[in-house]
Give the backbone structure.
Amino acid sequence: MEVNLYNKSLVEKVQLYALMMSPVLDRESLYSDCTEEYVKPAEPMEGDEVTIYLRTGRNNPEHVFLLTDEQRMEMQYERSEGIFDFYYAKVTMGRRPFHYCFEVVTGCMNCYYNQRGVMSERQDYYNFKLIPGLKTPDWAKGAVIYQIFVDRFCNGDPSNDPLDREYSYIGEGIRQIKDWDKYPDAMDVRSFYGGDLQGVMDKLDYLQGLGIDVIYFNPLFVSPSNHKYDIQDYDYIDPHFGRIVKDEGETLIEWDNSNSHASRYICRVTDKENLEASNQLFIELVEEVHRRGMKVIIDGVFNHCGSFNKWLDRECIYQNQEGYESGAYIDEYSPYHDYFSFSDRFRFPYNDSYDGWWGHDTLPKLNYEASPQLVEEILRIARKWVSPPFNADGWRLDVAADLGHSPEYNHFFWRKFREAVKEANPNAIILAEHYGDPCSWLEGGEWDTVMNYDAFMEPITWFLTGMEKHSDEYRGDLLGNARSFFDAMSHHMSRFTAQSMQVAMNELSNHDHSRFLTRTNHRVGRTAYAGPEAASEGINKAVFRSAVVIQMTWVGAPTIYYGDEAGVCGWTDPDNRRTYPWGKEDLELIEFHRQIIRIHKENPALMRGSYHPLIIGNQCLSYGRFKGKNRIAVMVNNSQEEVTLYVPVWKLGVEPNSVMEVLMHSTSDGYTCEGEGYIVKNNVIKVVLGAFSSMVVREK
């Protein structure tokens, strides 16, 4: 250190001299998180004594403090491992969330450590957090999930296919698409390809062989659209996905779009024989999935229903059907009147002045605040599907934060929802679709976790492709920007608890965004003006493989959108809902997924271990995962040039002269699960990565 003492006061000179003579504070060795390696027990209950650990450099700090909202507690030395020391403090959990960080002091130097890492000043916003009583299902921690948009996955039973003009939807008769390989139209919502639950049943061997732990279904309940986010009857699986045992009536004639005349459709979706048979198929499917050691998550759309819904019955489908009450659209005195909000209370019968979600009259907004009966009905439905005989393993909640008319009410409702679901099935998961900070929803009384846009899908998309997740924007400044990637990840991950992060749904693609493989072409586009063929032009499968490597080695539950593993491309909705290409799959890409899923599941560090960034470079990055002696490093080169990385695996606890074996090496030409090991020299491994390549290595 070179210091100019000229014109310094005596006090300043003494202070500078003391600083120069002070031992150096080893900031690089500091580490802690809220996994079970550093918090014991990791999911404490009120009244539990909890031991919290901090890792430091060997013989480095003079004092280590645990800082909470109320106190500054000196931590005690416990043990040494290699080049690290471990300090601990014991605290007793109260009823409220417990926030903490660390202060480390050596000589005249000090620093703070929180969820963002080492800080020069204390920043409580990023403190670690323990929620007494919060537990997320163990089966979901690091689980590999497979999302199925049922109409486009596999047609196992042609007898239940929707028919041309079986009914009218948004002003026109629906269409039966008989060419399975046809691209979705720009206006696709009324087009049906015939995928169903029998098709899923037929492909369970494939899913099990791929290594899938959980199947997440887009909505399955009776609904008129192919996406089924406009629920018609929450109590039954749609017979077009299930079984049609009674099939009477006629489709609509060409000039008639009145669904009160759609007798074939009315029979199919209101007759209890069809509805009960479809529920029975779901029961059989879940039983078979469970027999194979897998789980099932279903989609709950509780913010709004559909204009076809039996509670509203705008289409007059249920008006004259036995066993159904009058809908609120038809009858002012309907038992469901308060389920909706009508701006004109004098317009009955056939009152179309109800509130629609975002103004869509096909999506009537449910009016929870005005109807305790509606609240109880939805809670009954929540319990029903996670209980025998259906036994679903959890709910994914559509646009969950928009449920009521205020944030306060939404928190109130989701607390009641969690109580109902967890009472019926304590091991059921509750995960929500949510954009933005999820912190207030993950305090232990509402959701378990979220679909992880902010702390996964968006940062990985910007870094690897420079594209916005809908393919609506290209940002060259974010392409390959590892600093932005890690900053975004660490900021957004800090808003989760550890147990919420471990079960977060980490997706590359889904039914609302463009396919990740399409984003690798760096092209802004949508199917309406770019055309579907363009979604497959200029793609880079090597970049996609790097994305999957990150997905399978990051913290959370990696979630594959059906067909991604087979090379399916597509712009955003509706082009992202192409059919699974049975018989035309990219078999090499499928085998790559099978191998990286195997690697994910064979390593405890990747399922629920700690995470540590290692290298923040230009167009390249590295990070590590570790749990006990299972230590893994991941390296990614997102450039067209070869790079040499000196990976500091010592930060993961890897000893000098250890050997790091190659588990996966993806290159611009393909991939391999073999390779020469890397010997740790001077606490690092030297790795040469070619263009658009990635590698996963593990300490032997």
Q: What stands out?
A: The chain is about 20% helix and 20% strand.
